[in-house]
Amino acid sequence: MPAVPSRRPTRAAGLASGVLALTLAVAACGGSNVAGGGPTGPAPECGAYAQYGDLNGTTVTVYTSIITPEDQPHIDSYKSFEQCTGAKIVYEGSKEFEAQLPVRVQAGSPPDIAFVPQPGLLSTLVRQTGAVKPAPAGVAANVDQYYPETFKSAGSVDGTLYAAPLGANVKSFVWYSPKAFQAKGYTVPTTWAEMTTLSDRIVAEGGKPWCAGIASGEATGWPLTDWLEDVMLRENGPQVYDQWVTHAIPFNGPQVSAALDRVGSVLKNPAYVNGGLGDPSSIATTTFQDAGLPILDETCYLHRQANFYAANWPEGTDISENGDVYAFELPPINPATPQTILVGAEFVAAFSDRPEVQAFQSYLSSPEWANEKAKAGTALGQSGWVSANTGLDPANLASPIDRLTAEILQDEGNTFRFDGSDLMPGAVGSATFWRGMTDWITGTSTADALTFIEQSWPAGQ
Predict the structure, then answer these.
(1) Which has the closest alpha carbon to 230: 145, 163, 305?
(2) How many domains does the chain fold into?
(3) Alpha-carbon torsion (16, 21, 25, 26), positive or negative
(4) Using one digit for the tens of pLDDT, what is the confidence trace for 378-421?
(5) What are the Cα distances from residue 174, in Å, to 234, 335, 381?
(6) What is the DSSP string of 377-402?
(7) Position 268 in a domain
(8) Are residues 140 and 77 located together in one domain of the fold?
(9) Strands 18-21 and 113-116, how do they pair?
(10) Which family does it belong to (predicted)?
(11) Fewer CB within a 10 Å sphere, N or C end of the chain?
């Protein structure tokens, strides 16, 4: 997704870029805060910020793909850090982030901190530029205490932790309408077989069960990579998935072919799709933002997409367990494999090890920041952002689907795997994988699509 906060939520918003400087009058923790809290409201409690020291007069620059209006809760979440430490955070969001960050690094003028939307890009920056600084001790301690191992691994390169996750996404969701299900007498499926039975029942009753869309500008095709990754996990388990993602097994191997054919049993089935939007060929031309909307008028009933899809429902939509829309986990296929949740995230990489940069990087990996960010989003009425930080209180999140996502991420009994296309080399994950899936949905055979991707895998990677 070109995970923008991961890439996909920013695409979902379709928004303009901008540079926003935060120029609050601040005072260091232990000194006097601005009287009455200044223009930002009541002065914060600064006890948790004492560990960062007196940073008065320092500036930290942040570069990211997260742009308006999703940027505002981020900006607001820095205010307590600024007021308590005296540091100033200068935030720059750009639609051109992924193209421009390597240029800035190579030119010797990187930002202090960048929110890197894919582990693959982080790995490339570490290995090819040597400019990314290893995570400081404060970040490492927070990651070990508050994050699942999957996220630590995704932020590490060659065994060294470079970046903690920022936001996180649960990809393994199917959106549906609880109100429509209740009216029709449908129940949420708990296995793939039950989901197929439900789909067949909807067809028998004259409906189209599924709707889907993969159009996303230059990133067209990415929703299909998530479909394939989820099915790979459910058919083969996390160990085979890891082998596929690292190219220990070929991209066009038999397990992958079988998984893509299973995806095709849904998305290439004209009886199943594309409810309210056209025949299966319309999947390629329907934007991913629009793809789930037919659920609201019951021209489709099921839409596989991540938690961040919440941002695309029209204003006033009741997103709740008994509401207009909600989501359930994509159910298991093979009872012999553990149910594994597909996740994504962006990561906080630093290009400077100045004390104020390390302090802010540590803050962004802390429970204090995760809760400030959640509360800032809720105050603005924004939904779709969640952290994998187990110190996050789900009650601070804006909506039931956000709280469900946080509970899944915080459940120690869950097995997670990171978005495969985000982990693969860029020449595959955000290039031929997207294109190959687009060609496949428009008529290319499974064998030809997967062979095309396999032949693009860089030698030695």
Answers:
(1) 305
(2) 2
(3) positive
(4) 999 888 899 999 999 999 998 999 999 999 999 988 999 999 99
(5) 14, 19, 23
(6) HHHTT--S-B---TT--GGGSSSHHH
(7) yes
(8) yes
(9) unpaired
(10) Belongs to the bacterial solute-binding protein 1 family.
(11) C
pLDDT of 351-383, one tens digit each?
999 999 999 999 999 999 999 999 999 999 888
CA atoms within 13 A on the CB side of 192: 16
Measured at the CA of 418, the angle between CA 152 and CA 97, to 5 degrees, comes to 85
Distance CA 131, CA 160 (A): 14
Q: Rounded to an integer, what distance in angstroms lies between the CA atom of residue 400 and that of residue 171? A: 16
**Radius of gyration of the CA atoms of the chain, in A:** 22
Residue in the block written with tokens 């031309």 = 285
**Which tokens is 336 given?**
């012999």
Amino acid at site 232? M
Spatial CA neighbour of 13 closest among 386, 313, 403: 313
For residues 451 and 447, what is the distance between their CA atoms, to the nearest angstrom? 6
**Could you give the CA distance from residue 25 to residue 108 in angstroms, rounded to a whole number?**
31
- Residue 18 in domain: yes
Domain span at residue 327 reads 173-341+419-454
Does residue 263 sit within a domain? Answer: yes
118 inside domain: yes
426 and 405 belong to one structural domain: no
Q: 159: which 2 tokens?
A: 């065994």
Residue in the structure block whose two tokens are 């489709």: 300
What is the CATH number for 328? 3.40.190.10
Query: Which tokens is 267 given?
Result: 């998305």
